[in-house]
Amino acid sequence: MIEEKVLIQNFVAKKKKERLKKPDWLKIRVGDPTNQNKVLSLIEGLNLHTVCQEAKCPNIFECWTDKTATFMLGGDTCTRHCGFCAVNKGKPMDLDPMEPTHVAEAVAHLELAHAVITSVNRDDLPDGGANHWAETILKVRELNPTCKVEVLIPDFQGNEPALNAVLAARPDVLNHNTETIARLYRRVRPDAIYTQTLELLDRSAYFRDTQFPNMKTKSGIMAGLGEEFEEVVALMKDLRSVSCDIMTIGQYLQPYEKRLPVERYVTPEEFAEWKRIGLSLGFKHVESSPLTRSSYHARQQTESGEQSAANQIVSIGK
Q1: How many beta carbons lie within 10 A of that of residue 272, not counting itself?
Q2: Torsion sign (Cα): 151, 154, 160, 161
Q3: Which of 27, 77, 89, 66 lies closest to 295 in space, CA to CA?
Q4: Residue 14: per-residue pLDDT
Q5: Shortest CA distance to 247 belongs to which of 312, 298, 193, 185?
Q6: Which of 77, 263, 307, 317 is most exposed, with the fewest beta carbons within 10 Å of its own?
């Protein structure tokens, strides 16, 4: 672990330079702060965390103006040492037993039709926090029976019973991000394994196919970390080989100086081409643009995927 941290530090030191100038297409629109303030007040009042804040998401103003947020379980401190992430690193606090209820209450207060929930990695816990995850899904459903629940889960270090605990709670969307291409894993995700990520998605797809056909599987990556165009296409093919339904591709933005630098800003045209290729490979939906993030337009992604599946059924019927 120390060796991997040194590897990241040495790479950052070697590549330390003036940040690339952001292109015009990455300019953020700051909307009316009224609803943003309401969301912030609600989150603080219920002692919740959001990945919107912790990950410095560029879409926070748009989403919070629309009264949507991605809730983050397990506190605000992660046990991993990813080279891209803005979330605090270190020893986490104990789990808050009231957190599942508070998330469910926040979803009800915001009257969400589609709730997105993620978490920090909790490698300090025997189950990686999986049972806490399951309880949260069930609580959200209990208070919000018509709300769809999307979860963006960690890899639980390959712990299959932990994954099964989350799947048994039957989320509508099971998301686990690949984050980057296989070649860059050691630098970008030093505590993760590319094949383990694919295995998690494969197991989730098997659960979907055998027990809960309405569930969608989903994964996403960041572009601009040093990958080649065709390497992203190869990753898409890997995701389709494990029957992944939805994919997201967005531009990596360096959150602060000690994180990995942006190697390049990918053009909107390249993002559009990845989307075209992804749809041709069989994804039900591909969200691909500079500002795309895992939960950006999450409800629309799922609805698009459902419509795509319906169209396929109609085509087969014809």
Answers
A1: 12
A2: negative
A3: 66
A4: 54
A5: 298
A6: 317
CA distance 35 to 47: 18
Query: Vertex 150, ends 145 and 152: CA angle to 5°?
Result: 145
Q: How far apart are CA 228 and CA 119, in angstroms?
A: 29
| Half-sphere exposure for 4 (CA within 13 Å, toward CB) | 14
Which residue is it, tokens 């030191």?
A: 13
Provide the H-helix boundaries in 211-297. Answer: 229-241, 268-281
Q: Angle CA(188)–CA(190)–CA(196) in degrees, nearest 5? A: 100
Residue 276, phi then psi, degrees to nearest 5: -60, -45
Contact 234, 277 (CB under 8 A): no
Distances (CA, A) of 260 to 7, 50, 186: 11, 22, 12
Which residue do the tokens 């297409």 mark? 25
Type of residue at 262: V
| 185-239 pLDDT per residue, tens | 999 999 999 999 999 999 999 999 999 999 999 999 999 999 999 999 999 999 9
Residue with tokens 């599987």: 217
- Tens digits of per-residue pLDDT, 109-129? 888 888 889 898 999 999 999
What pLDDT was estimated at residue 70?
79
pTM of the full structure = 0.80
Three-state secondary structure of 95-129 = CCCCHHHHHHHHHHHHCCCEEEEEECCCCCCCCCC
Q: CA-based Rg of the chain, rounded to a whole angstrom? A: 19
